[in-house]
Please model this.
Amino acid sequence: MNSSEHTANHAIPNLFSFTGKIKILHMSWFAFFITFMIWFNHAPLMATIRETFNLTSQEVKTLLILNVALTIPARIIIGMLVDRYGPRIVYSILLAVSGVLCMLYAMADSFEQLAITRFMMGFVGAGFVIGIRMVSEWFPAREVGVAEGIYGGWGNFGSAAAAMTLPSLALFYGGEDGWRYAIGSTGVVAILYSFVYYLNVSNTPKGSTYFKPKKSGAMEVTSKGDLVLYLLMNLPMYVALAVLNWKLSPANLGLYNEGIVLLIYGLLFALYLVQSFRVLEVNRHVLKGEVAEIDRYSFKQVAILDLSYMVTFGSELAVVSMLPLFFLDTFNISAILAGMLASGFAFMNLVARPGGGLLSDRFGRKKTLIILLIGSMIGYITLSNVDGT
Model:
């Protein structure tokens, strides 16, 4: 293959078009943008919310944790729904429901209501899964890295947009309820765009068939050892939710009584058993005999990618949530300036994700990921040394 052919195989899509697959890309990244905007709309306004409800530092930390607690199980559930019903209708419903929850959060009049609605809003974090499936249906393999990078990067910028604009919007509305109107406005945007998205996209290009897997609810593995690893990998999610349940128990914040605590523990245990049973059911063929060598793959690769995603995107969620309040308290600056400074962290997604997709397409995913992890390590070490002096 000559150099011109190689370049053509990795061409950057014409992003100034608004037809065909480019239209789908633009419609989808903006849907993802809105989900991130409403997911983190509380972060730049947390100082005002803290003052309004006289929240303790523990209660503030709890709200930040609750915001992401439901996201992991939500992505599993949403992934199953996307496989069954397609990204078009699932994304539209997610936007509409999240918009309603966002407005309920804005109308809360107690810490308990803040906590419940913020926990439920964690479901909006599953929007990423929907758009990735939509983009992969519309773009060929040679372009999907760049396309998904644009989708993820430009969509992630929603958190930066919230940090940059919502403090000013709250000030524009004015009064002690300005923050409520600012947050509620993002919910209205999400509800309106749910209709726009539904009316303007399709699951696949014309003439293509949307593939629905014969087995849903769990991944297929190809060896008994991989099956054991798969079952073990599901445990941390339930352990994390159990720890959160303990944090909200009477022994800590006392958000609910001991009976509810025990009920939630039992529910988490039952859910793990149900999921494990589904994993075993989907992988019954592994228990019956050896899978042919040609059909095998190493589930360890999935585990490594899972861990890599946890330390990159997981850490990003934590930093995006806490950075505006950190800047405000550390440097004693205004909420508007703190939001502007914090937005710089997510701002890099505009180029980092599309750039990562382009580099992955051209130079390979393994090398690109290794460089990314090293760069992230250096960046976080530097960020950890920021103080008020």
The chain has one domain: 14-222+297-383. The CA atoms of residues 203 and 209 lie 9 Å apart. The chain has a mean pLDDT of 87. The two ends are 57 Å apart (CA to CA).
